[in-house]
């Protein structure tokens, strides 16, 4: 097995966690920039994408208008495979899981896409800014019924989840706090709410397609009375509530734990957090301190996290299971199937659903449970088939180039060991266990790779090497991050 | 799916006896709604034809439409790389076209238009050129893909009565005018949102007085220029409720009642000057105007994909 330098291993780890993996060519470019500068560029650069919105809209008007979740989901998949700012898409995935909002109730693609756009642009900003934007987000206002939260007749759904799932976690507030929080958010609604609710319930597209939604503050429906919230007293509106929430140590811990869970290592499921301590208290303490030192800045927390020893440590490499969206992003960026928009994007989006993650439609307000819960018999088969099928497809330009890179400079023949080493390297400096490595070498041997004349029988060689890549796509280390 | 209404329509042609044919592109999970709808200006509905697929009378990414002098309807298909031909009544007649980049081959045929000799000009958009065929698909010549004035993913195409060819040069944000031999004459516009500028124009048409109508797709508007390319007027759209929609609301009081209390024309200033967002929120505005067509009676037809409708204007002055 080839020895990979620590710098390459570390950069590959960073790209898997803060992005969607990277081929050898991409890794080489990043390494020439340097680890810390790459981290800074991921956090500090604005969102940009190789496939722009105009190009997508020309071919797929449904993907950026007020239509359904399949179009909005396919549009997001374009972003995942074409973004130049991978951390922006990762943070959108992160918040989509924490602030889980679903199409089943929203029944309108554009508010969902708008919410994701907000996560992309503000997901690395200050938490208080983000929570205020979330509280004014039309999809969230419909999803958690704040549209029905009225002065004198509160609906606690948003107030409860804001505290329980979005900021502090169970056990850090009282039922009275929920009520007072809800009172503070009365009047935070959407324009034309009666009409919008009717259209959403009926899933109506009449007369001219679905109408876009917009936030509207209804002052005459806001409860301006005195409230007592987490020990503070005043005539609070939503802004003051968010300010108080962000000052809480519980919020610092909750957000730190979520970030650790997403970027570093799987924590137990969120509902058990009140009863189970974080597995790495020291790491969480570092993140909590950064939270307060930076005044709730998510980007700064992630910068510290990605530069920390607990993140860089090889003990956490390949310890997370890629979510279906992460796996698909990795595979489709590698295959370069979507150099320009094409009709297969909808099919690929459906395949992510079959793997257990329907983008824009999480199973509940708790989002998707991660870690081992991504793996069950059906979804594992889908994952392996998806990765193997696409990465073994020589018609894809990215696969073709990887194969060529493996063959280059090898003369007439290539040994099974070298072929496996180069394939693993090309796919992103993948490190496997010795057992997996030996199995891959055995496969390459039995598949006849060493006996092929690379100069005379190029197509046969390409086919056999693509079959090896297809097998690599199924091994645990490729499915993990 | 049968019945009235459109689903992401992309073009309209005014055929024999003023009958209108509008093609709906639909979307991946709803290919059953991919079809051509026949109706007239009084909203009289005559039926649908065509459908998703690769056989006779079928298409996958229908884009441009044109009618010949017999009233037959021609429909381009960007994905199957062919031109479909239907009768005035919607009966499939044939299709022609082969994929590729050589002369006479197609890679993403978009807008189509007949000249007065019934030759068909095709915006072969992924080959960045216009190709001229006989109506039966015999290749004549192509142009627009070479030199510093080369096209970039052209969408709409139009041939004036005096034989000039106009192309909506989508990727270069301009309208390009050629003579009947395909020689470049001039271009109009540049990228931007000011008067006379364009962002990804999708369609173009020229009336008998030489006025040029452009669906300025990225700016969500219809721009009107004089024959020299000087800005005359810009329209953002002023749709009213169609007869079909009116009848829907008559039977769906639950939607009609709260709608009657809604503000469907919010102040556009809150949308940051982004036309796409303004059109998403203000129902009467053009949203995704993909083609402009003219008839002989002074009417202008704008097909809007994102609002699933056709807005019709009367030319005045």
TrEMBL record, chain B:
Keywords in alphabetical order: Repeat
PROSITE patterns: NHL
An MF annotation (GO) of this entry: zinc ion binding
Alphabetized Pfam families for the sequence: NHL
Cross-referenced InterPro entries: 6-blade_b-propeller_TolB-like (IPR011042), NHL_repeat (IPR001258), TRIM-NHL_E3_ligases (IPR050952)
Protein name: SMP-30/Gluconolactonase/LRE-like region domain-containing protein
